[in-house]
Q: What sequence folds into this?
């Protein structure tokens, strides 16, 4: 299982080596995401995310598409993470960010699923924070985080299947957006969106398929979210004015 780039080094947690390990909330909990102008989202997040960010699709492996939210107008600039490392108040925080410093991986046997933690996370210690183990047994905190990352991983996989199916149906088209600020054009590209004309021309059996598996509702939320591109420009203006 490949490690996301943001995790510099992860360790598979086990009671024999990490019985005393604790995890404290960082004073700058989302500083790690400050340079991420896109972030993956799962289908279960569409209902919340569509009110805050543009939801688009990016190609990973050839022919495989996954949904992401746009968080900035330029590479390595997340407009929603403040210099303090906090996420902007009242904005939805994607599960990708909320799960940090944890992720799902495999144990030493390379077969059993295990909870992994970023070994370089500043909140790791044996004196402060949430205990991972209690007398050699997984703590409630550990169990909650394991359940969270397991569900997240399952939903991300299903979300890629959803995006890939849209591609197979010929619904995804490359898109770019140009936003003019201070007389300068900023171009967002490298993503795809559902083509409305192709969407309207789906065969009846295809519409029925998408209705039964819940994809129609997701498509509508995706399309409605595209108007949030202008919120990115306004957010950038607010940050500039504050500085």
A:
């Amino acid at each position: 299982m490949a490690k996301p780039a943001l995790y510099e080094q992860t360790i598979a947690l086990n009671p024999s080596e990490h019985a005393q390990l604790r995890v404290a909330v960082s004073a700058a909990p989302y500083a790690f995401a400050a340079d991420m102008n896109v972030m993956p989202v799962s289908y279960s997040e569409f209902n919340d995310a569509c009110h805050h960010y543009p939801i688009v699709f990016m190609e990973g492996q050839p022919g495989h598409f996954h949904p992401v939210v746009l968080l900035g107008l330029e590479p390595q600039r997340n407009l929603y993470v403040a210099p303090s490392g906090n996420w902007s108040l009242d904005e939805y925080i994607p599960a990708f960010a909320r799960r940090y410093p944890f992720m799902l991986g495999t144990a030493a046997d390379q077969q059993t699923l295990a909870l992994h933690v970023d070994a370089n996370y500043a909140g790791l210690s044996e004196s402060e924070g949430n205990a991972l183990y209690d007398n050699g047994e997984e703590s409630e905190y550990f169990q909650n985080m394991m359940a969270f990352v397991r569900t997240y991983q399952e939903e991300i996989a299903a979300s890629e299947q959803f995006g890939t199916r849209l591609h197979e149906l010929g619904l995804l088209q490359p898109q770019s957006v140009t936003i003019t600020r201070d007389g300068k054009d900023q171009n967002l590209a490298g993503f795809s969106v559902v083509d409305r004309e192709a969407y309207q021309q789906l065969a009846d059996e295809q519409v029925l398929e998408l209705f039964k598996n819940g994809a129609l509702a997701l498509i509508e939320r995706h399309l409605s979210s595209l108007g949030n591109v202008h919120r990115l420009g306004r957010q950038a203006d607010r940050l500039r004015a504050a500085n």
